[in-house]
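#struct-pred
JK: can someone run the complex with flavin-adenine dinucleotide? inputs below
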Amino acid sequence: MHILHNYSLKSLNTFGLDSLAKQFIILNNVSQLETIATILHNNNLNYFVLGGGSNVILPPLYNGYVIHNCLYGIEMLNQDDNFYYVNVRAGENWDNFVAITLNNKWYGLENLSLIPGTVGATPIQNIGAYGVEVKDFIASVEVFDLQDNCIKHISNSECQFSYRHSIFKTTNRFIVISVVFKLLIQAKLVTSYGDLATKLATITNFTASDLRQAVISIRQQKLPDPKIIGNVGSFFHNPILENFQVMQLKQLYPNLPVYPLDNNRSKVSAGWLIDNLGLKGFKLGNVGVYAKQALVLVNYAAATQNEIINFATMIQDKVYQQYQIQLNIEPIIMR
Ligand SMILES: Cc1cc2nc3c(=O)[nH]c(=O)nc-3n(C[C@H](O)[C@H](O)[C@H](O)COP(=O)(O)OP(=O)(O)OC[C@H]3O[C@@H](n4cnc5c(N)ncnc54)[C@H](O)[C@@H]3O)c2cc1C
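RT: done, structure tokens with the ligand placed:
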């Protein structure tokens, strides 16, 4: 197995940060995993798995091992009355896979179209968009457990999924090898979310593929393309508040968008909170709030990890001062 040294990660992270990995390994065969585990144990070094780099804020030098997941393959396993079960290796591009599901009439993932990154990262933060979360379509996750040195299958309930969260965010002992998706045989389209409903209202008898195209078109209008301007999508989670707090806020800010979560709690739009402070388009040095979407921070030139964190802290402080709400950062800050 080849270990590369001082390897540049600039083209492997969508924020476009200049970052060197002290050691870099391309994982393209499951048989490498035991050797990787031995190297990591023997040297007691930092490590992380890098997929598409679309949810990480990298340091100028990562003093440890970066394991770049390049495991590929898509395999239909079986079906029951309601679902097809499809095993997908972690390195597959997520949006390519979503396109493949629709070509095969496997339904459920259409609202998650055009989210950058790899399949293996989707369970990590339980990706979600337009009223759908990936957790509802994951049967199990195959991992290599670096602690017990073996392959394991983690069931959906063991993944402990919640809003942008899972067990994989609480430990880095697991390298995701593949994900088994359970995809609907009969499409059940989720169309109620904001702009999507408006967009689809113009199409009669729309299909899952129309829904995918609508999502793609909305995302292309609203979100910056990382190939053109560095970003990691939403930079902050939508805060989850008790409903009585939401009611108090709504009295002060009637236009604040609210998304009910359960009987007692709702999510409120972090983007709206930032936008309402007049920060859309605000720029300081190399970092700024995207002019078309206040939830997205962008790298205008040669931003560094520190610059981004300082900018994000400033936004968090302003939001707290105005609304007494603490915003949490969504991407993973690698140290
Ligand atoms: C323009 C844009 C739009 C976005 N829109 C959305 C959105 O709508 N919804 C949403 O939820 N997210 C969104 N994101 C965030 C991001 O695309 C997702 O979180 C995506 O799943 C990250 O995939 P990745 O392969 O790039 O992960 P990376 O950034 O490479 O890694 C993210 C984390 O997962 C870990 N990881 C990655 N692969 C593995 C593996 N195989 N095993 C173990 N750990 C692993 C990494 O160590 C890291 O902690 C957006 C990002 C961008 C740039």
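RT: quick notes.
The two ends are 25 Å apart (CA to CA).
Residues 319 and 325 are 7 Å apart (CA to CA).
JK: thanks, will look after standup
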